[in-house]
Design brief:
By secondary structure, the chain is α+β, with helices and mostly antiparallel strands. The protein has one domain (3-122, 135-163): Electron Transport, Fmn-binding Protein, Chain A (Pnp Oxidase, Chain A), CATH 2.30.110. 19% of the residues lie in helices and 38% in strands. It contains 4 helices and 9 strands. It has helices spanning 3-15, 63-70, 99-108, 111-114, and strands at 26-31, 39-44, 47-48, 54-59, 73-80, 85-95, 142-156, 163-170, 173-179. Strands 1, 2, 3, 4, 5, 6, 7, 8 and 9 form a 9-stranded antiparallel beta sheet that branches. A hairpin with a 6-residue loop joins strand 7 (142-156) and strand 8 (163-170). It is elongated. The chain starts with a helix and ends with a strand. The structure holds flavin mononucleotide.
Length: 181
Amino acid sequence: MTEVFFQELKEELQKSLVQKKHPFRYFTLATLGLEKIPRLRTVVLRKITEELMLTFYTDKRSKKIMHLKENNKVSLLFYHPKKLLQLRVEGIASIVQDKTKTKDSWNGVQPKSRKDYTTVNSPGAEIDNPDNISYLPDENFFCMVEIIPFKIEYLKLKRPNHLRIRYSKTDDDWQGEFLVP
Ligand SMILES: Cc1cc2nc3c(=O)[nH]c(=O)nc-3n(C[C@H](O)[C@H](O)[C@H](O)COP(=O)(O)O)c2cc1C
């Protein structure tokens, strides 16, 4: 009985890749490094496979990468305001090491967006003037992160009954349980 909602969440995630204004295009990524303060930030969903592996792009010098190296467990939050649908995802993140795969994706990055991954100083470094940032002409710190989810919690607020379902993955199979909302 929970399968139909799993299908819905999957379709919504997939739609976000083709519908520019889809709210699942952006999600909140939480990481927890050794200092044990959860760190949240918005990132863009770039890819999702049939098995629900999610990909985002980042600068390999960013704090989130440091966190992922310290602890590869992450949480993701998606929210669809019109559907009042929230998805909480827990998964294992890995930094893509395959150079060809990374290069292919880099070639697909819009030329005007490429500079985001080429600052001389690392993201988060202090600067005197935000209009005075130097970029490297032919080097970049682009990297891809893939997240394999092991738990997804679906919450839909609706009347008369809200709907909350926990999906857990065991042996490549997703099992859903209804929960008290
Ligand atoms: C709309 C929006 C989209 C963003 N997309 C990304 C993204 O895809 N990848 C990324 O690394 N940062 C993205 N950012 C910036 C992050 O939210 C964050 O500020 C930055 O990555 C530094 O995070 P960190 O220091 O925790 O690593 C985005 C920010 C906004 C507001």
